Amino acid sequence: MELTDEEMRMLNGEQGEAVQQAMEILVALGKIYKAEKMIPVSSVQVAGVSYKTMGDAGMEYVEDLAKLGAKVRVPTYINPAGMDRNRWKECGVPEDFAKKQIRIMDAYESMDMKPTYSCAPYHIGIRPSVGEHIAWSESNAVSFANSVLGARTNREGGPSALAAAITGKTPCYGLHLEENRISTTLVKVHTDISTRFKFGALGALVGKMVKGKIPSFEGLKNANDVTMKYLGAAMAASGSVALYYVKGGTPEFKLADHYETIEVDEKMIEDAIKEINTSENPELLTIGCPHASLEEIKEISDMIQQSKIKKVWVFTAREILEQTKEKGYFKIIEDAGGKVLADTCMVVSPLYEMGYRCVGVNSGKAAKYLPSFNKQKIKYNSMENLMK
Predict the structure, then answer these.
(1) What is the pLDDT of residues 16-66, one digit of tens each?
(2) pTM of full prediction above 0.90
(3) Beta strands in the chain (DSSP E)
(4) What angle do CA 218, 219, 225 make, to 5 degrees?
(5) Residue where a domain stops, chosen among 151, 178, 205
(6) Residue-range definition of the domain harbouring residue 382
(7) I need a labelling partner for 16 at 20 to 30 A (CA). Which of 157, 275, 289, 385 fits?
(8) Does 366 lie in the same domain as 324?
(9) Are residues 212 and 162 in the same domain?
(10) What is the pLDDT of residues 116-129, one digit of tens each?
């Protein structure tokens, strides 16, 4: 790799031990992927925040970095933690878990990271532009940034995202290179997909079929920020898809001259939904994987007043939560028996330890991860149907 003078000073320890450690990680990563140089990034999104996924080793690692005086050089946003910092007791989060989670949060914040605690930073105005190089790590955020916004990022691991934040750099390989952003698979959709949970089912289906490739979609008539959020999140979870294109929906559409074609019809979508479902009796309904937008929360506040099921937990960014209070949605949901929670989501929270065994979701991503991460059975449907 060719390093600039500044990057060499970082690597040689002239800017402190934390910076040196960070640059060593990035150089090693660059060598593995045969990057020729580093590139500056305008923002970083750090995953690996929940104590559930980090454990003691991860907690001690970020605390050690904080003790070395590590500070971020570019705007850095934090992924969801394992609990709502303000309401963990009433949600039934074990105290030992909470104490260690707070230690992780404090360590990150001491490095001057922004306490967004959201997997959907794009809902709170963090929207890099087409062609902008960033270093994000949460799978749905990476998918949304690359696809819906047209930014350039690989899916960073926890340590590499931290390193990028501390140095403001990342190795130039993978999806930072234009030649690696060409789709060789066209997915023709021959059915009208209008609901978010069906976008998620399509994502779960196609993700398994393409496995890390870049799919392009034709025939999606209802593609918007929220529906594509569900599509991309499910593909990222089921097939590690970090970039996709939608004809007429995404700002770019780069299909190779020679490509394979996948045909998707209604029966394939219905079969995918049946495969996801493992139970009919959810103990808790959850929405917000990825984090819910203000529009989605308004819909829940409208539905919950007529619903027989009141145990609905809505997960969102704290900034959005404050907006729900201003609009009155928060009071409606909470008065009906639901909860609007920030800082966390159902996947990275200790649901099993809190006593839950079956969860109702409208998210293909949540349906993929909850069984393995939280030992949950799944009822998968639209929120309208789940709340009837």
Answers:
(1) 999 999 999 999 999 999 999 999 999 999 998 999 999 999 999 999 999
(2) yes
(3) 38-40, 44-46, 76-78, 135-136, 169-171, 183-189, 215-218, 245-246, 255-264, 284-287, 312-316, 339-342, 358-361, 377-380
(4) 85
(5) 178
(6) 277-386
(7) 157
(8) yes
(9) no
(10) 999 999 999 999 99
